[in-house]
Design brief:
2 copies of one chain form a homodimer. Chain A is of the alpha+beta class and about 110 residues long. The first copy, chain A, is built from 5 helices and 3 strands. Chain A has one domain: Orthogonal Bundle (Arc Repressor Mutant, subunit A), CATH 1.10.10. Chain A has a 3-stranded antiparallel sheet. The structure holds a DNA duplex (30 and 30 nucleotides).
Chain lengths: ~110, ~110
DNA sequence: ACCAGTACCTAGCAAAACTGAGTAAAAGGC
DNA sequence: GCCTTTTACTCAGTTTTGCTAGGTACTGGT
């Protein structure tokens, strides 16, 4: 992904992380690694941690500290009811966007 | 669209406007009206004009001043070669994002 | 003792969109 | 002639979000 992706990620990355958490609880380091495997090569660690702090403060996730076999304890996040509502709203907006963009793309090249 | 869309638009809105311009030249007021018809209800006028200034400064569009039948002269923008390249790159990044998101969405709800 | 891998956090910056104004020009009604 | 509406563009200041570029801390292998 190029630098263009940086700006396109804004607002979308939060939805991505919430979607990940809706599948199963996860911790920051794990999420960052997973994103990088998926091709989001230049996602900065700090970006994910900051995002997790934000969604926690907005009450979209629950947190639990879990000791790790290697390294410091993990902060495991899981999506709560409010987070699930927010995710639903995200998918709605995302669908709207993809529909409009698909139309535009067909319209020409 | 809710407030959530505001942040999701970042980076995407530029692609949308370039896509519009790739179909035919257009001026700011026209683009804003069209976007609102398409359901982008809360796009601020200032946002579109600022975006057009940016893409002009980056040399992605050509500008021509055209007198209007009613009101002040229009600044008509058209996509140039560099803009077309940029748009191609935008579609590539957009495809990447939609693929990843579609996968995530299938993965669960 | 040292280093690599794991795991998290922070301060300061940049980009992009919004708010909420203001400026201007022409058309049409009175 | 004046006023309102519509068209059309501009600008300063704020917020949100991601990036940069560090730092802290714990474990296991050499």
């Amino acid at each position: 992904m190029g630098k263009q992706a940086t700006e396109m990620l804004k607002g979308v990355l939060e939805g991505i992380v919430l979607a990940i958490l809706s599948a199963r609880p996860a911790y920051g380091y794990e999420i960052t690694s997973w994103l990088r495997e998926q091709g989001f090569a230049d996602i900065a660690e700090g970006t994910v941690y900051a995002l997790l702090v934000r969604v926690e403060q907005r009450g979209l996730v629950d947190v639990e500290k879990v000791p790790s076999e290697k390294g410091p304890p993990r902060k495991v996040y899981s999506l709560n009811a409010q987070g699930r509502d927010h995710l639903t709203e995200f998918w709605r907006t995302w669908s709207f966007l993809t529909d409009r963009l698909a139309q535009l793309r067909e319209g020409q090249g």
